[in-house]
Amino acid sequence: MSSVNTSNNLSDKFDQRPIKHHSFVSEVPDVKHMERALLGLLNDFHSGKLKAFGSGCTMDQMTKIREQQESLAKLHFELAASEEDSLENGNDFNAAKAQENMLQLMQRLEQLSISIEQLQTSHTGL
To answer: Which PANTHER family match (predicted)?
Structure first.
């Protein structure tokens, strides 16, 4: 019974609290200042002045890294499906083939890791 009383007490406290409303900037000079600042930021973005990872990093580099990630994931799923199909069809999927697949995945992962590392070092200037 005490938990019901506690619950009711908490409910009463919440009901009695004043409601806080979010205040928006509504003064015309403030709104115009924010508008100019946002338009300036948009112009900087479109002109290429804004860079998320520094001047040495390009969108092309990040796109290539994303493509490597996608390719690695696709290869991983293809190799797993191939192994599963071989086992379902009664074919022998031997340790040598599994080792070959793992080596292929590890080489691609290493290439991806090097690409990401180069992106980071171009960003930090190391």
So the answer is: CHEMOKINE C-C MOTIF RECEPTOR 1, COILED-COIL DOMAIN-CONTAINING PROTEIN 28A-LIKE PROTEIN
Helices 59-88 and 95-124: crossing angle in degrees, nearest 10, is: 170
For the chain, which residues make up each domain, given as ranges? 59-124
What region does 112 belong to: left with phi over 0, alpha with psi -120 to 50, or beta? Answer: alpha
pLDDT tens-digit series, residues 53-102: 666 667 788 889 999 999 999 999 998 888 887 777 767 667 788 889 99
- Compute the distance between CA of residue 40 and CA of residue 32 in angstroms, rounded to an integer: 12
d(CA 101, CA 78): 10
Q: What is the reported pTM? A: 0.51
Q: In angstroms, rounded to a whole number, what is the distance separating the alpha carbons of residues 12 and 37?
A: 45
Tokens of 125: 């200037």
